């Protein structure tokens, strides 16, 4: 039987097994997806059987493409936290209620979430002769701004008053991940202006939606621009007043 553990815990675990010839039993293995809004605090749950702190070792790791690229977030061993095993970029952003470890709670709190925090996180708890191992995928979302609509009479309409065509422009900014933009006309016709919509990823990682729609003002009154962000469960709209 070959067991692979998080990098920062490997040496501690090997040393313990050699001393005690421990038999490891899997208690629970679970994986879930958690969505957190940009800038907020993420709580990554990790629950296990209640045990004295002196009898357990607990680690949190952000998984990389390989075991060597894993990032250590938290290591608790022999009744105390081991800060030397923490990746520097997370040192001031993580919190675990250490008194909760005795109650079987190793939930990790990660403050000021950024897009770079997306990924798979693993909690590992060893309690001779048992272990608890769970993973959680963290996804980040950012809300798009309220759509801003501008109106401009089309050049063809200026030449022919009977045309009454208008060009509507809609902009919505600072969303994540990619969103979807729809034009909704008063008669209930929803227009997905795929060919007229572009989505730009800004240098800071967020997206801006821009779209244009040409309408006949006589038949389409009070059209609205609607933006959807499925991950954030956001739907936001504005009505054009031309």
TrEMBL record:
> Which SMART domains does the annotation name?
IG, IGv
InterPro entries, alphabetized: BTN3A2-like_Ig-C, Ig-like_dom, Ig-like_dom_sf, Ig-like_fold, Ig_sub, Ig_V-set, T-cell_Activation_Regulation
Superkingdom of the organism of origin:
Eukaryota
Range of residues in the leader sequence: none
The protein's UniProt keywords, in alphabetical order, are: Cell membrane, Disulfide bond, Glycoprotein, Immunoglobulin domain, Membrane, Receptor, Signal, Transmembrane, Transmembrane helix
List, alphabetically, the GO terms of the cellular component aspect: external side of plasma membrane
Protein's cellular compartments? Cell membrane
This chain belongs to which protein, by name? Ig-like domain-containing protein
